[in-house]
Amino acid sequence: MWAASACCSRQAGEGGGSATAARTPVKTFQAYLPPAHRTYSCIHCRAHLASHDELISKSFQGSQGRAYLFNSVVNVGCGPAEERVLLTGLHAVADIYCECCKTMLGWKYEHAFESSQKYKEGKFIIELAHMVKENGWD
Ligand SMILES: [Zn+2]
Predict the structure, then answer these.
(1) Which residues form the Yippee domain (predicted)?
(2) Which one of 26, 100, 113, 131 has the fewest beta carbons within 10 angstroms of its own beta carbon?
(3) What is the largest CA-CA distance in the chain?
C-alpha cells in the first residue's frame, strides 16, 4: 500500500446518490507552488518539491551528502515506513520519491522514538543532490 501524504477521506460512491456524479478529474499530475515563492524543484524533472518557507533545517546528512528538512513537500510519494537506526537514534522512516520521475529523494520521519527527536515527526528530508533552486535565487 502506498501511503498517501494528503488526506483523502472523500470516497466516491458513498450514500448511493448517483444523479449528480460530477466527473471531475481525480488525477493531478503535478502541484505547483505559488510562483512568487522561492521553491526547490526536482533536479531530474523540474517538478516543484518544496517552498523555501517550509524549510526547517539545512543541517541534515543524507546518503549522498547534505540534506534539508522540510515541513511539507509537494509532488512526493511515500513508501512503506520501516524502522531504521539513524545518526540520531531509532526512527520509523519511509522513503520518499518524486511522483513525476520516481527518483528517490530522501525520506520522511514517521516516528521518532527519542523525545529530543520528536520535532522531526511528519517532516521530510530531501537530499540536496536531488534539488535545484528555481529562478536562481540564493
Ligand atoms: Zn522528478
Answers:
(1) 38-135
(2) 26
(3) 56
Residue 36 Cα to ligand 1 middle (Å)? 21
Q: Are strands 65-70 and 76-86 parallel, antiparallel or unpaired?
A: unpaired
pLDDT digits (tens, 9 = 90+) for 27-64: 556 888 887 679 999 999 999 999 999 999 999 998 88
The three cell numbers locating residue 66: 547534505
The single-letter DSSP state of residue 113 is S
Q: How far apart are CA 107 and CA 94, in angstroms?
A: 5
Distance 15 CA to ligand 1 centre (A): 38
Q: What is the pTM of this model?
A: 0.75
Contacts of 37 (CB under 8 A, 6+ apart): 51, 52, 53
Q: What are phi and psi of 30, to 5 degrees?
A: -160, 135
| Alpha carbon of 106 to ligand 1 centroid (Å) | 12
Please give the distance, rounded to the nearest whole angstrom, from the Cα atom of residue 55 to the centre of ligand 1: 19
